[in-house]
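USER: My hope is that you can spare some time for a protein that puzzles me. I am handing you a single protein, as its sequence and its fold in token form. Walk me, if you will, through where the backbone shape changes along the chain. The protein I mean follows directly.
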Amino acid sequence: MHTSDYKPPPRRRSCWGCAGRLLLWGLLLVGLAVAAFLLSFPLFPPFGDARTARILVLGLDKAEEGAQRSDTIIVCVAKLDGSGTTLISIPRDARVHIPGTRGFRKINAAYPIGGEALAQRTLAQSTVLGAECPYYVTLDSEATQAMVDAMGGITVDVPVRMRYDDNWGNLHIDLQPGRQHLTGRQVVGYLRWRKNNHGVRGPGGDDIKRGERQRAVVAAIVAQLRGWPGMTKAPDVYRAFRAHVHTNLTGWRRFLALGWAARSLHLAAVPGDTATGGGVSYINADWAAGRQLWDDAGGNAR
């Protein structure tokens, strides 16, 4: 055989080369899918032409007898350009006139009387907050515990010694003061605490201080979800949320838009003073200051 007749054997294609090309094609397809997803937001905004999303958030208490009342009342203004979200908490014992009723009542009575619709109408009154919230999110009494447990707990600062036992209501609170990591059950106690076992209400047990603790829990949840460990648990938290919520907010793109808006979170509260009338303790809210908070948050922008 002459040297000139020699033909080298055909080269085999490298398996690594094929895998590399497949990987590149896969990354390209994923990149195109992400780009299409991101472009869908400006082209087809989840909230239409609205510049803000205005949402009423209600957290219900545990009904031992009768209808549930709204233990937590928060109005939310989310700026859909991503420039921030403001949460304004309202004392549940704030004294108001509820449309369709006589005289004055505590604002947390609106929900058991007429559901979310009446709570929305109450807050929209010009003499109250003037806050028109077309969307609502109502969380049942188990939502907080389920969401916090799905996150693996949260870290908060417990302001005072909290020791309270209610066997009838199955509520047991035993927290030392200081910054600490709490389970979902402990967070519920942290939020619900009003007094210790001796029956004397200590500092931090009034409605205003309870509102401060509610905002601290919201801030802790948002802060933890921003970090990488929290982001990995976001699907579990979302499932826990959906299992315990009643809302007219539909579509996962809307929830993603709200998450984008909450990158910068501002917390506020309608101020007020504790008063007593007819043997009933309530909060005399400064609604004028509340309306200013709402306007500053962009609540009147459309």
Observations:
- The chain has a mean pLDDT of 82.
- The first strand starts at residue 52 and ends at 60.
- The chain has two domains: 42-141+245-302, 143-243.
- Residues 42-141+245-302 form a domain with the Nucleotidyltransferase; domain 5 fold (CATH 3.30.420.590).
